[in-house]
Amino acid sequence: MFVFLNGRFVPEEEATISIHDRGFLYGDGLFETLRVYAGAPFLWEAHIQRFEHGCRLLGIQSPLSGGELRCVLGELLRRNGLREAVVRLTLTRGRGLRGYSPAGANHPTLLIVCYVPRQQPATYRVILSKIRGPEADPLGELKHLNKLHQVLARAEADAHGADEALLLNSCGEVTEGTATNVFCVRGGAVLTPGSRGILPGTTRAHVLRVCQRRGVRALEGAIRAEELFAMDGVFVTSSVAEIKEVSNLDGRALARSPLVHELQGAYRSG
Amino acid sequence: MFVFLNGRFVPEEEATISIHDRGFLYGDGLFETLRVYAGAPFLWEAHIQRFEHGCRLLGIQSPLSGGELRCVLGELLRRNGLREAVVRLTLTRGRGLRGYSPAGANHPTLLIVCYVPRQQPATYRVILSKIRGPEADPLGELKHLNKLHQVLARAEADAHGADEALLLNSCGEVTEGTATNVFCVRGGAVLTPGSRGILPGTTRAHVLRVCQRRGVRALEGAIRAEELFAMDGVFVTSSVAEIKEVSNLDGRALARSPLVHELQGAYRSG
Fold it and tell me: Looking at residue A80, what DSSP letter applies?
């Protein structure tokens, strides 16, 4: 497999990162994970907009524009002979001096890696994580490289044989999954936690648009964890998971809603 | 310069990290920064205890014990001909599959790098950061690789020509600096923010012990940011900064206390 690293297409096994890269040392960077279907990156514009917004907030200048990234990704897929892929785009502040100051780190590291999509379970088993993410995190809306809470919550899910863990805030409200956003079905409408302080999922926004186009009422608002058990259906969304129904939460079977299947059917056509 | 990477002493320019290393991808790891004086690592036991505590919490097994690390560090210093050094020890969960799950990532990456100590300013100019760190962060006591808040607060200090930025909580109380702990002098006593939710600094603990041995009263408690301007003296501490008096806060000169100089004199002898 080829990857794209700092301006070159290189075989994966030859692609390495400096030990002084600030992504490695401090998580000083951003990433995007997206899906390619039949050679075309899905929701590309939304991913690039979020990426460019993150670049501005962190003060990291991407060496390539959105259009150039799109072009490079096309070539990378071609070289790897992939029409179906999961793609991760990573940008870090590159090498710098020792210490937190980003001064002098002016050569960002840009990496694009393609993965063959893994087989996904048809529905997800999910747990409510005991790990509380940071509250009121000013960086919560950025898809940055500081993902240790997500790693630990996902390890907790693994330990329970689950596919995903949902994070709660200190009020006991659901915020997001480690790698997904959460939706519920109640009385024919779709409900999802408000976007404040959570990562603004590209798939979340897409699903809200799909609901709108299909005349399904979609609301944003607080959802207490225990309310999930009484919903008509629960599902999680991400570029990789797409729309996955939650069949089981903390070991308890959940109700299943035909609306979830309807949204799954409309997912790729919008 | 040689570095120690995954069991081998290698020239720095040949030492690289996998693009799949979870330290790079997710900040999934830990580090320690310490000072070497006359060939001897300072406060070694305290650093290793914190490191081993972090390993247990993250479920990462260090490939080397504390004693082995001490031995490797000695050899690394010898090969580099260094008697005075800043040393960074980094441990990540190593390579894994794509995604947050740490499953299957069983070969941690261990890196030790020595730096020639940089010239430090005699006193520090400091700012109060506008960046609010996450509140009640369950990982706040770990010296992990998720340091983007610190990077951004330090960039804010750089923009003001300052040497350090202090982080406040949502109540307006000082918690810690980006890379330091904070102390004040008031009425002959030393005061520092309580340790809950902040990184337990090895130098902070050492300074508290130095105070105790010298009969200087040392208290832990809340310090509101605006109170700093009325203190008899303010200083920050870290392995690299040692004890640095804050001469200027947000552009205003601070009072200077002879007690700070007394503690600086006692720092290395304890």
Answer: H
Report the gap between the CA of A268 and the closest CA in chain B (Å): 22
**Residues 6+ positions from B242 with CB-CB distance below 8 Å:** B35, B203, B264, B267
Q: Do B27 and A98 touch (CB under 8 A)?
A: no
Q: Are A29 and A109 in contact (CB under 8 A)?
A: yes
The alpha-helical segments, DSSP class H, found in chain B are 22-26, 44-58, 66-80, 148-159, 202-213, 258-266
What separation in angstroms does the CA of A223 have from each of A190, A193, A231, B156?
Answer: 12, 6, 10, 36
The chain B residue lying nearest A23, using CA atoms, is B24
A165 DSSP β-pair partners: A127
Nearest to B77 by CA among B15, B126, B34, B23: B34
Q: What is the pLDDT of residue B224?
A: 96
Task: Tell me the sheet residues that pair with B64.
Answer: none
Nearest to B24 among A17, A155, A170 (CB): A17
Intervals of chain B under pLDDT 50: none
Length reported for chain B? 270
Q: Residue A244 has which token pair?
A: 């996955």
B225-244 tens-digit pLDDT:
999 999 999 999 999 999 99
Query: Rounded to an integer, what is the distance from CA B149 to the centroid of its chain?
Result: 14
User: What residues contact B249, with CB distance under 8 A and at least 6 apart?
Assistant: B126, B127, B128, B228, B229, B234
Helix or strand (DSSP H, E) at A261: helix A258-266
Token readout for B200 is 């337990």
Per-residue pLDDT of A118-156, as tens digits, reads: 999 999 999 999 988 767 787 888 999 999 999 999 999
The letter for the amino acid at A123 is: T
Q: Cβ separation of B103 and A152 shorter than 8 Å?
A: no
Please tell me the distance in Å from B127's CA to the nearest CA on chain A.
Answer: 14
For residue B26, what is the DSSP state?
A: H
- Cα–Cα distance between A198 and A241 in angstroms, integer? 18
Is the Cα torsion angle B116, B121, B127, B128 positive or negative in sign? positive
